[in-house]
Write a structure and sequence with these properties.
InterPro entries: E3_ligase_FN3/SPRY (IPR050617), FN3_dom (IPR003961), FN3_sf (IPR036116), Ig-like_fold (IPR013783). This is Titin. Helices cover about 15% and strands about 30% of the residues. It has about 150 residues and is of the alpha+beta class.
């Protein structure tokens, strides 16, 4: 208030920030026994839609605690990791990315040990079968993000 009077103006502020970390990161050995399907759940977009995911892995037998980047352009909530060493246990983590940047990484997955033999009786899915499933999911996820961003 001053000698001319007072006024009230309302405004809405939307804070743009990186997305929250994904949850339930999980790996499953595929039929080739040196590949794994890693999947996770998205915790939602926040004010900006998720544009992609970044996936990292780490060997649990390593003295170094550094992470190795597997891929940084994943558009679905699953990714096939190939060329894993047999007899080695791996953990995986994921972060979601949007126009603001990379969010926090997820909690690491439980260790997944790549074995010479499957621990089940039936054959796992073949790589081509998995790719046929994942590619439409990636397209659906991408189209959904385009659709949700156009309605804002």
């Amino acid at each position: 208030m001053n000698h001319l009077g007072n006024t009230v103006q309302e405004c809405q502020i939307t804070l743009l920030e990186p997305p929250p970390p994904p949850t339930e990161v999980n790996g499953v050995i595929l039929g080739s026994y040196n590949s794994a399907l890693v999947s996770w759940l998205s915790c939602g977009d926040g004010p900006c839609p998720i544009t992609r995911y970044l996936l990292q892995l780490r060997r649990t037998d390593s003295s170094t605690k550094s992470w190795t980047q597997v891929a940084d352009d994943i558009t679905s909530t699953a990714h096939v990791v190939e060329n894993l060493e047999r007899g080695v246990a791996y953990v995986f983590r994921v972060c979601a990315m949007n126009e603001v940047g990379c969010g926090r990484f997820s909690q690491p997955s439980l260790p997944l040990t790549i074995t010479d033999e499957p621990d089940y009786d039936s054959d796992g899915p073949e790589m081509e079968d998995v790719r046929r499933i994942i590619q439409p999911l990636a397209l659906d996820s991408y189209l959904s993000s385009l659709n949700s961003s156009s309605h804002q």
